Amino acid sequence: MNSFIKENWFKLIISVAVLIIAASAACFAIFSGQQKERADTTDSRAACSTEAKRFYDQYTKDTLNSSSYTDHWNTNLNKCFVDISTTFPSNAVKAEGTTNELFDAAEGKQYAFLQNDKTGSPWACIISKNGDIVLGQDMTPGIENCQDSEAEFNNFIKFYMEN
What we know:
With about 160 residues, the chain is an alpha+beta fold. The chain has 2 helices and 6 strands.
């Protein structure tokens, strides 16, 4: 064995050096790919924040009601969503209440809508899939509700706002 090492020491050193270089290159490739993915996600989130603000400002420009929004870049769907909450005063038709609306900020498609009076009783809701309405109805007595509560509505929009 000693004679093998003495005769092939140079080849052994070269082999170990090649293995170290290959392992380092693999680690670098993996690390730089993760860094690029993080940078892409960060860029997407920043762009989403800008797009959501633009959408919110445009959507609420003519309202006097108090409103706020939350934006979210959904990495699974590669879409920017904006959840707009509005408080409205009572009028001849409706009691004081709130609306919650979920939109694709870039396309302007409405994914969900819930309107409650101040007691939390739903007046109307729209539920959609990919921006196409799949369920919507007025919350008149005797009609089955598409969402029974704000909690159920919020549970529905989690798919869009938490991935």
